[in-house]
Design brief:
Blueprint (H helix, E strand, L loop, with lengths): L7 H13 L13 E5 L10 H11 L3 E6 L5 E6 L2
Antiparallel strand pairs: 1-3, 2-3
């Protein structure tokens, strides 16, 4: 099979989709419920759930995780008190 320049855009698209996919599992909490709260520090449009999670863990001591929602807000998940 010979590589041609015609296949380059397809290969680039597949690599971009693989790198940009951010599949994450829901937080596992053994005791208590999970509460969700909009981050007060994350003020720009949320494009990366990883950056959101780091911000949430710095903002709330009880934060489990953080993720971007459809409206591009950073939503922090934490154990309900």
């Amino acid at each position: 099979m010979e590589f041609s320049k015609r296949n380059l855009p397809t290969l680039a698209l597949v690599l971009l989709l693989l790198v940009s996919s951010d599949v994450r599992a829901e937080p596992i909490v053994k005791a208590g419920r999970v509460c969700y709260m909009k981050s007060l520090i994350f003020r720009w449009p949320c494009l990366s759930s990883r950056n959101c999670a780091v911000t949430c863990r710095g903002e709330f001591k009880s934060a489990i995780d953080g993720s971007c929602n459809a409206a591009r807000y950073c939503i922090c998940s934490q154990v309900c008190k």
